[in-house]
Amino acid sequence: MDINAALAAQKYAASRPATAPDPTIEAAGAAASDFMSTLQRTEETAKAALTGGADTHTLVQAMAETKFAVDTAVTVRDRVVEAYQEILRMPV
């Protein structure tokens, strides 16, 4: 009986409280803000290139970063939709 109580106490202490933030949600929020900052930087670079404030190489590099960010976001979205559809197909 003592072993089970000690194991239960250890597991209880190691668990995260229900009020603690979920690290996966925080990571998703950080990824979304990083995505938005990439888009904003590219837009600023494009404006600067049109007014002569940035060279062509910088613009092409910013556009490539944006394409990579958009491709990544689309892939994540597709995986989330696919997982949701799998859940809907599960028998109840």
How many separate domains?
1
Relative strand content: under 5%
Oligomeric status of the shown chains? single chain
Would you tell me the overall average pLDDT? 85
State the total count of DSSP E strands.
Answer: 0
Largest β sheet strand count, sense and barrel closure: none
| Structural class label | mainly alpha
| Series of secondary-structure elements, N-terminal to C-terminal | HHH
Low-confidence stretches: none
Q: Please state the overall shape, judged from the principal axes of the Cα atoms.
A: elongated
Kindly state the percentage of residues in helix: over 70%
Could you give the distance between the termini?
38 Å
What attributes does this structure have?
single chain; 92 residues; mainly alpha
Overview of this protein structure:
The protein is an all-alpha fold. The chain has one domain (21-89). 83% of the residues lie in helices and 0% in strands. It is built from three helices and no strands. The protein has helices at residues 2-14, 23-51, 56-89. Helix 2 packs antiparallel against helix 3. The longest helix has 34 residues, at 56-89. It is elongated, with a radius of gyration of 23 Å. The mean pLDDT is 85. InterPro entries: FliE. Keywords: Bacterial flagellum, Cell projection, Cilium, Flagellum. This is Flagellar hook-basal body complex protein FliE. Belongs to the FliE family. It comes from Palleronia pontilimi.
